[in-house]
Amino acid sequence: MNWANSEDIIANCGTIAALLEVSGYPKPGNVHRTANFGETRYEHFLVSGAILSPILRDIAYRGNCTQQNQLDLSDLNLGASILQSVKTTLNWQKGGNTNLGIILLFIPLACAAGTLITHSSPSIAILRSKIGLIIENSVSEDTINLFEAIQLANPGGLGQVEKFDVTTTSTESLIKENINLYDIFELSADRDNIAKEWITEFQITIEVGYPYFKKTFLETQDINLAIVHTYLKILGDYPDTLICRKYGTPFAECISNEAKDILEQGGLLSKDTKTKLWNFDQRLRIKDKINPGTSADLTAASIMVALLEGMRF
In sequence order, what DSSP letters do the residues of 263-278 get, joined into one string? Predict the structure, then answer.
């Protein structure tokens, strides 16, 4: 496959991944091309995906600069890119927080991909090691910008943590204790799967979501089916941490079990389970107002990795 070998291609991979993920249908409980979620509409997500391109291009360029010895890893400004992404998203649409999770996954992915632009033999394994390297070398200023981004996005179901809570922690304490992005996400890893990705070199995305998405698409040649089944796979294997925080782990596990059962029975490949899937979507969206948003974000990241590797459809 043709690895992403320019900043423009990396940015395109991120933008396309965001647009594909939100378009996949039906993704139970989440916005897709046939369903909105309250006042947050499908169109808001399309705008949010499209406007990320220049920011992803810039962070990919910065990643490439580190390989040319033009920039230190500590000067990548991951936090500033996250903050800029949130500000730009909110400036371009009025649907609220549409993509904070995607931003938190795409920024390090694009940056790490940028470090491989001139690599002689780029691979998923090397990409993963680069993700770990750039996160470990982040600085407290990145965390300050991250906190501002989260406060601006104002995501639902955030909850509180005992130490370095995003709503109460002072800038001075982050600087004094030199809390970088790895440190802050490590504190939340047991309650948030996106935070866990940051400290595990994207374990769910790269070990589960990406290979499952790639395999499913190659077998079916159906991009929508691959997206929906990858979403069900991630949701089925990992109880959605947004639901866990809002409604408790036992309830989130029930949702995961239902997703797993539908997928194991055929998902979109079976007429009966296709009906179950649509009913599951309607129940979560209309009756229970539950959205497994973390699972959708991880699905988008899985698609992006496949596109970075060179997958086309």
Answer: HHTTGGGSHHHHHHHH
Q: Give the architecture (CATH level 2) of 7-309.
A: Orthogonal Bundle (1.10)
Q: 161-167: long-range contacts (C-beta < 8 A, 24 or more apart)?
A: 161/187, 161/188, 161/191, 163/187
pLDDT value, residue 57: 98
**What does the pLDDT read at residue 1?**
66
pLDDT for position 103 = 98
Question: What residues of the chain score a pLDDT lower than 50?
Answer: none
Q: What is the pLDDT of residue 161?
A: 60
29 phi and psi angles, rounded to 5 deg: 90, -10
Q: 188's torsion region: left (phi>0), alpha (psi -120 to 50) or beta? A: alpha
What secondary structure, in 3-state letters, does 233-254 show? HHHHHCCCHHHHHHHCHHHHHH
**Helices in 99-209 by DSSP H: which ranges?**
100-114, 124-136, 140-153, 171-176, 181-188, 193-199, 203
Sequence ranges of the domains in the chain: 7-309
Rounded alpha-carbon distances, angstroms, from residue 49 to 14, 45, 52, 235, 266: 8, 6, 6, 22, 30
- What pTM was computed for the model? 0.96
Residues 283 and 83: their CA atoms lie apart, in Å, by 34
